[in-house]
Amino acid sequence: MIRLSLFSVAAVLLCACAAPPRALDVTRLERDIAAAEARSGGRLGVAVVEPTSGERWVHHAGQRFPLQSTFKAPLAAAVLARVDAGALSLDTKIEVRRDDLSVCWSPLAESFQGEAQSFSVLDLITESVTTSDNTAADVLMHQLGGPESVNVLLSKSAVVGIRVDRYERDLQLQFHGLAAYEPAMSTCEGMDAAVARVPKDEQLRAYEAYLRDPRDTTTPEAAADFLLKLDRGEMLGPTSTRVLLDIMYATKTGAQRLRAGLPPGARLAHKTGTSADTEGRNGATNDIGIATLPDGRKLVIVALLTDSNAPQETREAALADVARAAVGALASTPPGGT
After folding, report:
1. CA 338 to CA 332: how far, in whole Å?
2. Which domain does 197 fall in, by range?
């Protein structure tokens, strides 16, 4: 016969009933993200991770969403991995010829002079991430040997679910139903003129095909894994990690997205992604980032919105709502609290 003292029984009951405090208020996230999605006019994928505990919450887990320019953060990481390996340096000069110019959006292409200009690896990474320059991204991708090099880095880092398959110059043409690249497409005016010549029904067929295409997509949790491993220094060396995070902190796009939902004094290392509209439908309005709150706590936040019929202001407000919900879910359970 086994005898338990009253103290032993109490200890067993305490162990059975007590649970570690949660980092995230899941009930609040479920409520607030459902409301944000309802306002967004589309399908909203979300991942929120509290890095210290590793606790995460995902909305539309396992579903795929178009990356658009959010892929430029993993691309930058792949380039910096080459720097870590000694195959490149941040000062390495890369010649960009007029034939290398990509499609709008590309401030580099808009200001390009002559037949060739040289840019450092650091310049191209910075422009690709902070202004989302398509030419800078395509030149870096070519330097790596193609999109598969990005996937190799992600695989080595155990990030499963992100696919990078095409250059911007290919993806954006296919998105619009354009048959072939023309030099005029390197400017937004030229790109808009080319798209206007595509019949509306062909544009819509291309858009529908884009939504079904698994290429150049991610799941919310995979995007969060990338950010988490980058922030923890598990993907790059210390110097390259700092370089990329500093560049992401300096991102100039998406001021009304995740950043707008953070409290004053918070910092955000992030990358946005946006598609054009087709007949009132938007393929992607995205923002993924690492938020550092005024009290020093961090949150990884992923917001991926696809096939929305809402105007840009509403779409971006939905992403701000995601950040606001994530911070609210964290703030409701302070460190050491229950």
Report:
1. 9
2. 24-331
